[in-house]
Amino acid sequence: MLIRPASPEDAAAIWSIMEPVVRAGETYALDRDMSRDDALAYWLAPDKEAFVAEQDGAVLGTYVLRPNQAGGGRHVANCAYMTSAHAMGRGVARRMCEHSLDHARALGYKAMQFNFVVGTNERAVRLWQSLGFEIVGRLPGAFAHPAHGDVDALVMFRQL
Amino acid sequence: MLIRPASPEDAAAIWSIMEPVVRAGETYALDRDMSRDDALAYWLAPDKEAFVAEQDGAVLGTYVLRPNQAGGGRHVANCAYMTSAHAMGRGVARRMCEHSLDHARALGYKAMQFNFVVGTNERAVRLWQSLGFEIVGRLPGAFAHPAHGDVDALVMFRQL
Question: Which parts of the sequence belong to the N-acetyltransferase domain (chains A, B) (predicted)?
Fold first, then answer.
């Protein structure tokens, strides 16, 4: 699996990964009716660095990295990861997260924070924990899950 | 004290409040060299509702309210408050927070979250606690304080 910076030519592949995630509204706090253009503008915003995970010429996942805060918060990175619905269970998210941790360290970040991990997304919570993240905050009922109602969201954090 | 929506004519007063806060870099995760235009564009961004607290024709404070997240997170409000250096200790922040809680309730929000309360800002932490907020998260060393080095930032939350 090759993880490389995203290029403008990856837009269609990135949207094909984002679209089902956005429309489902179960794991990301994004408007479910978000347009393709808005979604790509959000993911590929100038304050973010975007990557894709590629295997045999197919884009299986994408992630973005940015400073989580400005000013005195710039030494903490924030990332978001999405895996193609066709590539679940193949370790794509784990590989992207490992890549992002290395890349963040190389850029001089001292820590990484996830601001809003939906509590019912147990697969993600376990994966991030296995990669060294701890739950440092719990936001009660902060996420309106389309099937489960208001569920907690978690803040996860690790030093680099 | 009158709390009213901010208008474009308040820009100079808002910047006079923001400038020392931004330059000090002790309580907000904003770049300390942020320009006037960038600061006002941030504070008066289209996704925020901005208010000012006024007494005898003088603007003593300003606050902004917005949804903390999109999509499934839109029922949780986020606010930020700044008080004029000349008006500290007069209850301006408390009055603005009370106003914001009422306003958020009126808009249908179910909760309010502060994402990044600098731990050394004890005055603010105590004030928010006295207004019903609880510390629901602690971000270890997430804020580079110009005098104290890396200090914790707190996530605070209350139902409405």
Answer: 1-160
Which residues on chain B are in Cβ contact (under 8 Å) with A76? 139, 142
Q: The domain containing residue A47 runs over which residues?
A: 2-159
Cα gap A155→B155, rounded to integer Å:
9
Give the distance from CA B146 to its chain's centroid. Answer: 20
Domain count, chain A: 1
Q: Report the CATH number that the domain containing residue A79 is assigned in CATH.
A: 3.40.630.30
User: Which chain A residue shows the shortest CA-CA distance from B157?
Assistant: A139
Which single residue is written with the structure tokens 């975007």?
A: A50
Please provide the size of chain B in residues. 160
Residue spans of chain B under pLDDT 70? none
Contact between A65 and A79 under an 8 Å Cβ cutoff? The reply is yes
What does the pLDDT look like over A89-143, one tens digit per residue? Answer: 899 999 999 999 999 999 999 999 999 999 999 999 999 999 999 999 999 999 9
A137 to chain B, any CB pair closer than 8 A? The answer is yes
